[in-house]
Specification:
With 302 residues, this protein is an alpha/beta fold. Helices cover 41% and strands 15% of the residues. The protein has a single domain, classed as TIM Barrel (Alpha-Beta Barrel), CATH 3.20.20. α8 links the parallel β6 and β7. The protein is globular and about 65 Å long. The two termini are 33 Å apart.
């Protein structure tokens, strides 16, 4: 294989947002600096949300301003509204990530708005960001299924991608928010998206709720996708969906791709060491497999 895959890390936002204990600002900054050194392409550093809604990210500004930024890494932040966008601009983020659910029910559970109201607010955000140099990425949660509504039609996803692009989004993320995607569905939807927008920077954001995360990655690659979100140690999960477990694990993803000869900028050994460090700051084991079993080249004495 010669394809180059971009690895986009989300642990300090998606992973830490549902941890029970507060991870200190210094620990977050140290973790992000270690991830930068490992060679990941993008880091979703934090989210400028209400501290009441997500207490573990109440130090968003301090974290964003405190990291050692590398010119080859994109530092992005999730924002829910215009106020969050203003805070992000003040911290000189490279990109903001907007999120809306394709499912009306999930969107209401998540942000207490219907989908149309969310896009109305996104228009205000887009206007506010004009001329700032901050890029917009548009994420579509529940792209492959909703835990409340069930099936999501491909055409609904394509329609909302169009809405995002009209707003000026430069990239799109399809999120399998609660791990409902199947490999055949991933290939079909990704193929449709790239048939419609061949040059679209398309990211896939998989959760491993039902154990299909890495299989879904392979089908996305087969369809032509080469950008993937992942969370160190496999931390994360949607707080508004029953039974949702973590994102696909970054070091497990990189391990798989490296031994399939895909090209990446990431150092697997550094990732594994950073995942072990993550366990010390969250105070519990993480779901990742490679840090438990070792790489397939790690042999044992007879």
């Amino acid at each position: 294989m010669e394809e180059r895959i971009d690895i986009q890390e989300v642990v300090t936002r998606d992973g830490l947002q549902i941890e029970n204990q507060f991870v200190s600002t210094d620990q977050k900054i140290d973790l992000i600096n270690k991830l930068t050194a490992s060679g990941v392409n993008k880091i979703e550093t934090t989210s400028f949300v209400s501290p009441k809604a997500v207490p573990n990210l109440r130090d968003a500004s301090d974290v964003m301003l405190g990291v050692n930024r590398h010119p080859d890494v994109t530092y992005t932040a999730l924002i829910p509204n215009v106020y969050g966008a203003k805070r992000a601009v003040a911290c000189d983020v490279d990109e903001v990530n907007l999120v809306v659910s394709v499912s009306q029910t999930h969107n209401w559970k998540n942000v207490r708005k219907n989908v149309y109201e969310s896009f109305s607010e996104f228009e205000d955000i887009s206007g506010m960001l004009a001329g700032t140099g901050v890029a917009i990425n548009g994420s579509l949660a529940t792209s492959f299924g909703c835990p409340f509504e069930g099936k999501i039609e491909d055409e609904e996803v394509l329609t909302l991608i169009d809405r995002y692009l009209e707003l000026g989004a430069l990239g799109i993320t399809l999120a399998d928010t609660t791990g409902m995607a199947t490999p055949i569905q991933v290939y079909r939807l990704c193929s449709k998206v790239l048939d419609n927008w061949p040059k679209l920077p398309l990211t896939l954001h998989f959760h491993n709720t039902r154990g299909m995360g890495l299989a879904n990655v392979m089908e996305a690659i087969r369809a032509g996708v080469y950008r993937f979100d992942a969370s160190l140690g496999g931390l994360g999960g949607c707080p508004f969906a029953p039974g949702a477990t973590g994102n696909i694990c970054t070091e497990d993803l990189v391990h798989m791709l490296e031994f399939m000869n895909y090209q990446m900028s990431v150092d697997l050994d550094q990732l594994i060491a950073t995942s072990k460090y993550l366990e010390t700051i969250v105070g519990h084991e993480v779901p990742g497999q490679v840090i438990k079993a070792g790489k397939i080249t790690d042999l044992h004495a007879v």
